[in-house]
Amino acid sequence: MRPRLPFTAMLCLAALYAATVSARVEVEAAQHPSLGRVLAVKVSEEIAPGDYETLLKGIQSNPGQFNRKIVLLDTIGGSAPEAMRMGRLLRETGFDALVPGTGICQGSCIYLLAAGHKKTVSGHVGLHRPPFSSGDSAQAQAAHRHERYSPAAYFREMEVSGRLAEDMQRIVPQRMKLLSAQELASYGLNELK
Asked: Do residues 85 and 110 make contact, with C-beta atoms less than 8 angstroms apart?
């Protein structure tokens, strides 16, 4: 009997790991006591090709009127073109963006934060240049060949300061710059209270 306990524990850990890996994009409608009907999207872990489709399906699965639409960000970044596609969808469908106090938004997550109509940062936002000169890995680029990758154009579209794209390019991929509340506000990425 004793050897079964470690095996059972391993099975439980494997199941828990599998559940967290597949839960990068979650969409859920809820009734909030003070806000009313809310559509919440949570983006966590690494943004990868296919996440746009998951987001789109989740939004389409929750039709109707909402008092508020919020995207909660806690992601280490990932595919920049995929994040831009997701960001455009979030903007078009009227989402606000929130980095909760326990959350982090780094790398390409900045594109999701920029997409929010209202942007609130309580956690941490890290900025750096993408690791590849063209903005993403070869694999992710192949999946998005038909789309144009331009951080400056994207930020203009999202009504965020053009300095953000310039400053992002100055920070080597191996270094992460945590942005202060003042820097976030100057880029148009946080509404100071």
From this structure: no
What residues are paired with 178 via a beta bridge? Answer: 126
For residue 73, the cross-strand partners are 43
Homologous superfamily of the 23-187 domain (CATH): 2-enoyl-CoA Hydratase; Chain A, domain 1 (3.90.226.10)
CA 82/CA 87 separation, integer angstroms: 8
CA atoms within 13 A on the CB side of 116: 24
Mean pLDDT computed over every residue of the chain: 83
Amino acid identity of residue 72, one-letter, is L
pLDDT at position 20 is: 40
* CA distance linking residue 51 with residue 71, whole number of Å: 14
Q: What is the 3-state secondary structure (H, E, C) of 125-177?
A: EEECCCCCCCCCCHHHHHHCCCCCCCHHHHHHHCCCCCHHHHHHHCCCCCCCE
User: What is the reported pTM?
Assistant: 0.80
